[in-house]
Specification:
about 230 residues, alpha/beta, TIM Barrel, eight-stranded parallel beta sheet, binds D-xylitol-5-phosphate, binds zinc ion
Amino acid sequence: MSYADRARELFSTTQILPSILSADFARLGEQVATVMDAGARVIHIDVMDGAFVPPITIGPLVVEAIADQVHEAGGVLDVHLMIENPDRQIDAFAKAGADAITFHIEAAPHAHRVIGQIREAGLLAGIVLNPGTAVDAIAAVAPQVDLALCMSVNPGWGGQKFIPESVEKLKRIRELLPEGAALEVDGGVDERTAPLVAGAGASLLVAGSAIFGKPDPAAAFKAIAAAAGA
Ligand code: DX5
Ligand code: ZN
C-alpha cells in the first residue's frame, strides 16, 4: 500500500493526532515512538514562519528526520502550514515525507491552485480556517479538498484554551464538505473537549499539550482517544 493510500484510509477513521509542537525536541524520536506505541497513527506537524503567525517553528528538515520512523511504524505525517505563500513550500514538504498538507485560507488568495499543487505532489490536501474567519470563506474550495481544519484556538502556540464557539462552527463546516472528506480540529483538545468536537462531526483531533505536556503521554493519548470514541 502506498503512503497516500494509507493516509486516505487513516483519514477516513477517527484519530487523535499528537502535535509534536509540545514535544521535547531533544528526544523527538523517543516521544514519537511513545505516542505511536500507544496507538497514534497520524503525527501532526506545526509549521510557522514568523510572519503569518509570530513564532518560527518547524521546517522540512524536522519532517524528514521523523518521516521514516513514522512510516515504518504504520503512520503518516499531517503537515499544518501556518505560513504566508504556502505554494512556495509544497514541494519541499512533499519531498521531506509529508502525506497531507493543510494551509490557511487567510494566507492564500489562490487557494484553488494550491490545492491542485498539493494533489499533484501526490498528497492529501486540506484547507484551514482561523477562529475569526467565517465558514463561508472556504465554501468555494470545500468540494475540492480531502480535509478541512477548523482552528479552535488562534494559531501560533500550544496550550491555549479551547474556543467554545468552535463546536457550532464544526457542524457548519461538516455540511459544506463532500462525503468522504475529513474534518480536523486543532487547539485546546483534551479529554473534556474531545467528546464535544467529535459530536460535532470532527474525526481528526489534534492534541499537543494535552499529550506531551503530561507526565505520561501514552496514557494521556489513550484517555483522549477513549473520550473521543476513537
Ligand atoms: C497551534 C497549533 C496546534 C498546537 C495545538 O497553532 O496549530 O497544532 O500544537 O496545541 P494544543 O493541543 O496544546 O492546543
Ligand atoms: Zn496545528
